[in-house]
Design a protein that fits this description.
heterodimer, A: 218 residues, alpha/beta, seven-stranded mixed sheet, two-stranded antiparallel sheet, globular, B: 289 residues, five-stranded mixed sheet, four-stranded mixed sheet, 8 helices, 13 strands
Chain lengths: 218, 289
């Protein structure tokens, strides 16, 4: 298994410090794969994101500052430790498109430089990201063992009234990734490009299916 | 010797636990085969990460995915099996017991669809299907936790006397709807015919077949081969960020029906959680996956 899971910086991935600077965000291109160090903010909760939208619209500060930082769609299991601290037992991405409607406002209001999760975001989000200078980082789904091993410390947990994966969590991570830049700050989305490409290919794909059916006697 | 409530309860809990901490061997073999044929560098890196994540989960007893899904069990009872106790309650109680003892704890994914409130319990939870095996003296339980990532994209449409071309075009339509969303490379189940509920069940059951196996029916085997090539020609790739590997397998099955023909398409994400074991009359447990 020596070639498996060899995902360290030694493999040549660029490492970016989080919170990501706007210059770093703009330096990335869709398709790049990176590692991240530093502090990230995560939640998998729609109610949580709705609360953040309410903060933005009501001119209130969220439980901890998000300005110029990240908001990643990752779910985690957080719990108190015996010494009064907090620990994360595991974390993994959730489907970002669930948040499509809410993300453009948050990206603009907080000037986020990085969002992420899995599956990408829609065109409205891509436009907001281009305007602000923000990238979308695609995490490996089913990557909980890898992602969780990158956690160095839990800085803060907010919205403790919500189920664990909905809480807003600020974490310190080291060598988290590799993460694929799914959407860059220049309006390029791998997800949109691939959807368009598949749609363009579909007539030829259906034609090939017809040929294969004929060859199989169907 | 009868198969007891306690044995079914313990196995139901264990199957769920095991399913969370490993990727089935056939699925890992499928990922390794994909790694040999995948032409895009980024996609190869993602496939390697998948195998690395699966290995780390097994080595360290970690969950592969934080979304443990909801408990889904498929139970086959041998018609000659002797039962002692409430087997249905045993499955539900087994899951409850697991929730109480599993480490690390499960996140709350059982959702009331009317309120979106989440917990560990809910109406008709766990989701259980029942079947009978003629003459057998065992009980077989297959556990297949289902989560939103892939479950969200299942679809069904009913046609009138469809051609194979129409059926296959519909499969591709559902594949396009799912796009990059369902944690590819996926296992695709297609159920054709029967009735609304039967088609859905056939599709779901098709996802449980071993990755890399060949359909016994030549017509379906040929359909599976060409649909797999077609799905992988879309280019969505591992995690939907581009590549030749969007599906590891397409499994198709059918039932006779009336001229109205439901076609159901469902997906399992790349971790393809699935564990299966038999409880025998002598008290032994035979684990298959």
């Amino acid at each position: 298994m020596s070639d498996i899971g060899a995902t360290t910086a030694a493999e040549g991935f660029r490492t970016i410090r989080m919170p990501m600077s706007r210059d770093d965000a703009r330096s990335l291109r869709a398709g790049d794969m990176i590692l991240v160090d530093g502090e990230i903010v995560i939640t998998a909760g729609l109610p949580t994101v709705q609360r953040l939208v309410a903060c933005a619209e009501g001119g209130r500060d969220p439980s901890f500052p998000l300005d110029g930082g990240s908001l990643l769609h990752l779910g985690s299991y957080s719990q108190d430790t015996a010494d009064g601290g907090l620990e994360i037992l595991y974390m993994n991405p959730t489907t970002s498109t669930r948040f499509n409607r809410l993300m453009p406002g948050l990206i603009r209001h907080f000037g986020l430089t990085a969002v992420g999760g899995k599956g990408g975001l829609d065109a409205g989000c891509v436009a907001a990201m281009q305007e602000v200078g923000c990238v979308y980082l695609s995490f490996l789904g089913g990557g909980a063992p890898l992602h969780s091993a990158a956690i160095q410390a839990v800085r803060e947990v907010a919205y403790g009234d919500l189920v664990a994966h909905y809480r807003l969590v600020r974490l310190a991570v080291s060598a988290l990734g590799p993460l694929t830049v799914g959407i860059d700050a220049h309006g390029n989305s791998l997800f949109d490009t691939l959807q368009d490409q598949a749609r363009d290919r579909m007539p030829a794909i259906l034609e090939q299916l017809a040929k294969d059916r004929a060859a199989a006697g169907g | 010797m009868p198969i007891t409530y306690d044995a079914v309860k313990a196995l139901s809990a264990d199957l769920y636990d095991w399913s969370l901490r490993a990727v089935p061997a056939d699925t890992k073999d499928g990922l390794r085969r994909a790694l040999e044929t995948e032409t895009q560098d980024g996609a190869r890196k993602v496939l390697r990460m998948m195998l690395g994540s699966a290995q780390k989960a097994e080595d360290e007893g970690r969950f592969v995915c934080s979304d443990a899904g909801v408990p889904v069990y498929h139970v086959t009872i041998g018609s000659a099996a002797r039962l002692d106790g409430d087997i249905k309650a045993a499955i539900s109680d087994g899951f409850d017991e697991l929730v109480g003892r599993i480490s690390p704890p499960l996140l709350k994914h059982v959702t009331n669809p009317l309120t979106n409130e989440r917990g560990y319990k809910g109406r008709d939870m766990p989701l259980v299907t029942w079947d009978v095996a003629g003459g057998a003296d065992w009980i077989e339980i297959l556990c297949q936790p289902k989560a939103l990532g892939s479950g969200r994209w299942a679809a069904l449409e009913t046609f009138s006397f469809p051609t194979l071309a129409e059926i296959e075009a519909y499969v591709m339509k559902v594949v396009m709807q799912a796009g990059s969303q369902h944690c590819p490379p996926v296992i695709i189940g297609v159920g054709i015919g029967g009735s609304f509920d039967v088609a859905a069940r056939i599709a779901s059951k098709a996802t449980m077949r071993r990755v890399g196996s060949t359909n016994d029916e030549p017509v379906l085997a040929a359909m599976e081969e060409r649909l797999l090539r077609a799905v992988n020609a879309t280019g969505f790739g591992p995690m939907g960020t581009g590549g030749d590997t969007t599906a590891l397998a397409v499994h198709v099955d059918y039932a006779s029906g009336h001229g109205y023909t439901p076609v159901a398409v469902c997906f399992n994400c790349w971790i393809n959680r699935r564990t299966r074991a038999r409880l025998h009359a002598d008290g032994s447990v035979e684990r298959f996956e």
